[in-house]
Amino acid sequence: MDYTHEIKEYLKRDIEAVMSVDTEQINDAICAITSAGDRGATVWVMGNGGSAATASHFVCDFSNGVYYSPNGNRYNFRCLSDNTPIFTAIANDHSYDDVFLRQIKDLLRPDDLVIAISGSGNSENIIKAAEYAKSVGTPVIGVTGYDGGRLKELSDYKMHVPVNDMQIAEDIHMIFDHMIMKILCNTDKR
User: Fold this and answer.
1) What's the distance, CA 2 to chain centroid?
2) Residue 38 to residue 53: CA distance in whole angstroms
3) pLDDT tens for each residue of 15-30
4) By the 8 A CB rule, do 141 and 156 touch?
5) pTM higher than 0.90
6) HSE toward the beta carbon, residue 49, CA cutoff 13 A
């Protein structure tokens, strides 16, 4: 079999998606992340499925890659998808719609930051956690695809990929993570 045509078509769609993102909005999100690091805030990251893997990757890159904010504080990223026992206990005992909300309820502070990743922007468990964050005054970065859904509307900062394809959106979400890491690593003088 020869898949070169399909490979080229997929990569073409990835490139088109990358070129369609709003760099000013991404810059604003990066500034929100560095500001959270500078003030010692916790950055709570969440996602489902492939977006959960991206959320974990954000935490890895900011716990071992970037490590320090511009003023020298260590980044404090926490992934709400990583603790399988608590995740499944909440889903089993309460509701899958509450798996993120119950982890941040009464712990989230107004000076923290939430990074909510949802390809569709409509995952109910993500929306409930984002709404709670907004109710306590915590800013939200929405990382979305498609039309951004409800998450894009709720978000203070948007890292949106306007593409109607989950895999392409997830590809670009990982690019966001690595791009931010590389940008901030280049500004870290340690």
Assistant:
1) 36
2) 26
3) 999 999 999 999 999 9
4) yes
5) yes
6) 9
Whole-number Å distance between alpha carbons of 142 and 145: 10
pLDDT tens digit at each of 190 positions of the chain: 999 999 999 999 999 999 999 999 999 999 999 999 999 999 999 999 999 999 999 999 999 888 888 888 899 999 999 999 999 999 999 999 999 999 999 999 999 999 999 999 999 999 999 999 999 999 999 999 999 999 999 999 999 999 999 999 999 999 999 999 999 987 654 4
Which of 12, 7, 20 minimizes the C-alpha distance to 144?
A: 20
> Residue with structure tokens 């719609």?
97
Single-letter amino acid, residue 168: I
| Selection from 25, 49, 40 nearest residue 120 by Cα | 49
Distances (CA, A) of 150 to 18, 39, 72, 75, 144: 22, 29, 35, 28, 10
Backbone angles phi, psi at 67, to 5 degrees: 70, -60
* Structural contact between residues 180 and 174, judged by C-beta atoms closer than 8 angstroms: no
Residue in the block written with tokens 């504080």? 73
- Residue pair 166/145 in contact (Cβ under 8 Å)? The answer is yes
The DSSP element (H or E) to which 83 belongs, if any, is none
CA distance linking residue 17 with residue 185, whole number of Å: 25
What CA–CA distance (Å, rounded) separates 5 from 11? 10
Cα–Cα–Cα angle for 99, 103, 107, rounded to 5 degrees = 155
